[in-house]
Amino acid sequence: MDGDAGQQGGQAAEPPTLNGGCFCGKACFQAAGPVVMVYNCHCTICQRLHGAPFARFVYFAPGAITPKAGSEEFVGSFRTSETVVRYHCRVCASPLYGEINPKGFECTCCPLTALERGPDGRVLGLEGLKPMGHNYYVHRVADADDDLPKNDALPPGFESLDCGKMYPHC
Ligand SMILES: [Zn+2]
Ligand SMILES: [Zn+2]
């Protein structure tokens, strides 16, 4: 992580910032919109680290997700592959977010389940965060009973997508 606590300008036209955090509440983050895409990941790393058949991720531009003030010391990280660094709460071990930097593709993402919830327990803005498909489906431990695209690895064109170029203001 960088140690840069940059100030964001309060321009009215900017997309909303989403809030998220861990189970115990020590590690909170903010994700500067817009949301670029939403995918389910069935890779074996996500299965093990999330303790679930798959993890649903919300993707943002590079650098869009940062710890909130006071949360930095509770955010731990480790590299899970050559191109992915994952961040988690040092206290409760909840997955927080990740940075992906393969060649030609850069983004940050967080599990949809880490995003802020309303009083009813539902993730805020859930209706606008529909998944676009299943990635690494070849490694699935459970079938997905839906009509979304099922990709053996990443979807076609994913590797060449540059979220930073799509949203240079982020
Ligand atoms: Zn925690
Ligand atoms: Zn994965």
UniProtKB/TrEMBL annotation:
Residues 18-138 form the CENP-V/GFA domain. It comes from the Eukaryota. The keyword Metal-binding applies. One of its GO terms (molecular function) is carbon-sulfur lyase activity. Keywords: Lyase, Metal-binding, Zinc. Belongs to the Gfa family. This is CENP-V/GFA domain-containing protein. It comes from Ostreobium quekettii. The lineage of its organism: Eukaryota, Viridiplantae, Chlorophyta, core chlorophytes, Ulvophyceae.
